[in-house]
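quick one, 521 residues, struct below
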Amino acid sequence: MRLFTHQQFRTGARSVGAAAMGIAFIGVPSAAYAAEAGTPVALGTLNTASTQAAHTELDFAINNPYAAVDWAKYGQYKADFHSHSNESDGSPEPKDQIEEHYKLGFDVMALTDHNMLSSTMDRTDDSNPNNAVDSQYLTPERALQIKNGVGRNGRGMTYIPYATEQSRADHLNTFWVDYQNQPGATLEENVAMAERLGGISHINHPGRYTGADTMANGGADGAAIARDPAVVKKYTDLFDRYNSLVGMEIINKKDGDSYSDRIMWDEILKKEMPKRPVWGFSNDDTHSIADTGYSYNMMLMPTNNEQEVRKAMVSGSFYAVALVAKRELGNAFQGNRLIPAPSITAVVVKDGSDDSITVEGKNYSKIQWNIDGKVVAEGNTLDLNNYESVVHNYVRVQLIGENGIAFSQPFGISVLGKRSVAPAVDGSSLPNGGAAVPGTTTKGAGTGAQAQPTNNVKVAPVAQKKPGKLAQPRVGTDNDTLPQTGISGAPLAELGWGMLSLITGAVLVYRVRSRAAARDV
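---
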């Protein structure tokens, strides 16, 4: 008896005469094999290579820090919330530090000298009585020009009043607070006072105080300290108690003290999200003109003023940029502060039944998705259902380019429930990869688009979640829905041919054996 393969069956053995020649077939040919062999698969049939069993998927709620941002209309404003002059331990005079920020395109600036207040750009007094050097601020005329954007086509710079670095204990930057800490003050007392007086604050370079800034053993020692539960708890306790504590520095001073602070940030997010977001800030902490412009924040705002800056700092409507980030970019890397760094230009979040986050940007070479401190994927879109086993309570994304890195704020993730997903078909099993064919109309586009026939064969609506996901079609007539064949991937027509082949072959074998038996008698 001659045995034929699936391909031989597909290409020429579909006749009753073939059975009369003593041909038996190896099973019923599958649509999967047909697709691999280049044979068109009928609309509405399954491709076993692309078919998955019925299963459940999680539905997620995604807390998007950029939900209120109108990406088409909002501006992106460059901000530095940590800088110094000779009012404390910096080298430039206040006026020179302000002018340098203005020249480098900063739109928002806070002068945060240690334990003293900087109220305006044009103040005339030397506010630090312990400073032996007279400090000069801007003239009122120049301060007004900078505010109005003279020399920058009207793009003015907002100066944050009553900002300082409270430095009696672990350093803390406070904003819009008429307060200077006294010797013996603790970090928590400074956070509490800022909240009591109606201001906001963020923690500065925590690695300096925990020891996580060490680069010993290739950075392993610092990473271990940053993950220490006791170290993490020190900060999560503060975030739990004080809503006005909006975040922490994840990049500071060319990533000097902050070498492991992104690791600590992830550990904090693992404890706090999604109920309590903690925003990541990137600041120069500049003490000199030459070191200004390497770390900053891009504030996403409808207009640039104090009210909008504060709103963005509280809501997380900004992203952090660094031209030096040693763990991500290498210890020797330093970007050019005079050319563009990676930027985020749009964020689209689809939760519930879609469960995806899409990010667009400029000046990047790759987009990385970070879950629990690990990069789990690359590309513009993260489909959370592909990472259900590892996603817990937050996701963040980072864009890496030739001139630095941009860090998004964390997206809070929580589970809404489970949803049953039927067995499915990839759009690649449809004619033309799911594109419209004669007699059909197509809903959707690209891989996974389901062609809808306009003739008398119907394909019921597919519970298709998104392109690339599998969905189960049901094939029927105008009047009914045919039952499933029970043979994965077998079109009804091929099932008929297979049954006919098996029956005819069996009859032929029976006749041959009967004649042989008669001869033996």
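The chain has a mean pLDDT of 79.
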